[in-house]
Amino acid sequence: MKENAIRTQVGELDLSVVLFDEAFPLNLPDHVTERHRHSEYEIFFVLQGAISIEGQGKTVRAQAPAAVILPPLFDHRTIPHELTGYCMYFQWEQKANRQKSRRLNEITEALRDNATAVPLSDEGSFYVRQLAKSAKSDCSDGTEPHLTALLFAEVFRPLFSVGASGASQKIRQYINTIDLYVYQHCREPIRLSDLSKVLYLCPKQISRIIRKKYGCSLSELVKKHRIALAQTLLRETDKSVSEIAAEVGYETPNYFYVQFRQVCNETPAQYRAHARGEA
User: Fold this and answer.
1) pLDDT computed for residue 268 by the predictor
2) pLDDT reported for residue 23
3) 2 and 20 in contact (C-beta within 8 Å)?
4) pTM
5) What does each C-alpha distance from 194 to 146, 174, 185, 199 come to in angstroms?
6) What is the rounded distance in angstroms from the CA atom of residue 127 to the CA atom of residue 196?
7) Rounded distance, CA 52 to CA 55, Å?
8) Mean pLDDT, 10 residues at a time, the chain of 279 residues
């Protein structure tokens, strides 16, 4: 089993993580561990099936998708149930020369006595799978610290309140990045998976953000950008409609013609004439 050590920062805290590449392979039978304990926090990411943690007088069962967090020195055994998932150890550390934060106190208190199960969002599951791919790879692409920080923010979100201003700022950053990416790449095919690599969000979450902000799908947003660019070229150049269609990313002039009429309620030639006062 391969392990991958990661260091990152989450707010005012330093985070040290060891991620195992394949904690529960699909081709192995369920295996109940002997009772044991670890000096670090341990967290199980349950992507399929379920897991039971038999601890100190209590059993916690978590059904996918979920995360189960175990405190340091917690005596336990794990019982997988057709489980697919991943396991990591982690430690929180206060940044140097700072007083112990309220958030670190809250984390320590909330996870002190027993296993804690929390739901794992689509975004959290996406980050886990991306980190697992990285752990299996022989070379790093440098995204692991950022993905780890995003994952822990998702995992701890159900336990601690998140300030509305911080959440709003995060959404604004996503929207700004989407706007810039679509503007720069609207001449090319753009998929939600392309934006996932930029935003470190799962496609479903990106689709929700776009739908909430723009009231349309990604493909419709790209079309609006392409048509807006075509309008500029029709007004300010003498390029033919076929040339403009190719320049803004359409493979055929006929498809461009149909798309333009859907958005503008007139043909490209009619738009050019009206824009130049020639109609």
Assistant:
1) 95
2) 58
3) yes
4) 0.65
5) 17, 14, 10, 9
6) 10
7) 9
8) 78 80 55 84 91 88 92 91 88 65 71 84 85 75 81 77 53 81 89 89 90 91 92 91 94 94 93 85
113-118-119 Cα angle (round to 5): 170
How many structural domains is the chain composed of? 2
Q: Are 5 and 17 in contact (CB under 8 A)?
A: yes
Picking from 156, 176, 203, the residue at the C-terminal end of a domain is 156
| 202: amino acid identity, one letter | C
CA distance 221 to 179: 9
Are 180 and 149 in the same domain?
A: no
pLDDT for the residue 97: 52
> What is the CATH classification number for the domain harbouring 57?
2.60.120
CA distance from start to end of the chain: 72
Residues 77 and 186 in one domain: no
* CA atoms of 123 and 119, how far apart (whole Å): 11
Helical spans, DSSP H, in the chain: 102-110, 122-136, 144-156, 164-185, 192-199, 203-214, 218-236, 241-247, 253-264, 268-275
To the nearest 10 degrees (0 to 180), the angle between helices 203-214 and 192-199 is 100
E-strand ranges in 11-65 read: 13-20, 41-54, 59-63
C-alpha pair distances (Å), 105 with each of 13, 95, 155, 187: 11, 14, 17, 50
Residues 123 and 179 in one domain: no
Identity at 227, one-letter amino acid code: I
Q: How many CB atoms lie within 10 A of CB 193?
A: 10
Q: Write out the two tokens for 49.
A: 């099936």
Range of the domain at 25: 3-156
